[in-house]
């Protein structure tokens, strides 16, 4: 018997009317489909995690805005350092939210609902 290996792990002992090659191609296609579905699931899961990060960043922005309002009522000399830190935090949260939104768009462009 002649042992052949036309595809990754598919061994053919005979080639009667091409059935061996057909079987190997089908096996390869099935494996590729499984990998595709696994990858799609991982992307969908990553997208949901990114959505959670976006929601957290949004909450940080809202809370920072409320804190800035409260600090605005206090004497400026005593709160200037805190106000700048709160503004910096809100700005970082907004940048992170925008970056994550772009990543969600990339995933959505692949036709994967997130």
The number of helical runs is: 2
Largest sheet: 2 strands, antiparallel
Domain tally: 1
Question: How big is the Rg?
Answer: 28 Å
Distance between the termini: 52 Å
Question: What does this entry show, briefly?
Answer:
InterPro entries: RGS1-HXK1_interactor. The protein has 114 residues and is mainly alpha-helical.
Structural notes for this entry:
The protein has 114 residues and is mostly helical. The chain has one domain (4-109). It contains two helices and two strands. The chain has helices at 19-72, 76-109; strands at residues 4-7, 10-12. Helix 1 packs antiparallel against helix 2.
What attributes does this structure have?
2 helices, mainly alpha, two-stranded antiparallel sheet, RGS1-HXK1_interactor, 114 residues
Record the SSE blueprint.
Elements: E1 4-7, E2 10-12, H1 19-72, H2 76-109
Antiparallel strand pairs: 1-2
